[in-house]
Amino acid sequence: REQDKKKASKRVKFQENNEEELIEFYGLGLQHPWGHKIIKGQKTIETRNYPLSQDHLNKPFVIIETNGKGPQQAIGLATFRSCHEYKTKEEWEKDRPFHLVEVGSQFDWIEDKTKFGYHVDQDSIVQFSGSIPHNLVKGHPLWPTYPSLKAKVFLPKSKIPSE
């Protein structure tokens, strides 16, 4: 999993044009600072209490970050190449340098609670050169309380990054 640690994010500028066609993406909501850590290549495994379906693998997700108090912001794009279930605490601990879950936090390992790791495809990361305000992000990100939700978000075509 050392390859997961390499940084491959690209900085891009928003296209500026008058088109307002909306482009559909999956969305994943994360609290600050975890979204930025994914986009910067520091957090290479996202953890949840439910698996990422096969339909969501290898599809671009808009990473949407919130501080829990203010508006959510779309900060970049990332793709998850695989998902696996943690079967033991030892396996969880071995991956701690990659998922970065803080010891003792509400997201840490709990016996008899299922945990899954979504592996970020480091080559897929696109860091927006500025965040997209919540009022330009349409739809609902995939929050942990809605594991079966087919979450979709829509970004104005004029805000989709280009290299």
What does this structure look like?
With 163 residues, this protein is mostly beta strands. Helix content is 10%, strand content 38%. The protein is built from three helices and ten strands, in the order ββαβββααβββββ. Strands 1, 2, 3, 4, 5, 6, 7, 8, 9 and 10 form a ten-stranded mixed sheet that branches. A hairpin with a 6-residue loop joins β4 and β5. The protein is globular and about 45 Å long.
Keywords:
disordered N terminus; mainly beta; 10-stranded mixed beta sheet; 163 residues; single chain
Brief digest:
This protein is mainly beta and 163 residues long. It has 3 helices and 10 strands; from the N terminus they run E-E-H-E-E-E-H-H-E-E-E-E-E.
Describe the protein's topology.
Layout: E1 10-14, E2 22-31, H1 34-39, E3 45-48, E4 60-66, E5 73-86, H2 89-94, H3 96-99, E6 115-120, E7 126-133, E8 138-139, E9 153-156, E10 161-162
Parallel strand pairs: 1-7, 2-4
Antiparallel strand pairs: 1-10, 2-9, 3-6, 4-5, 5-6, 5-7, 8-9
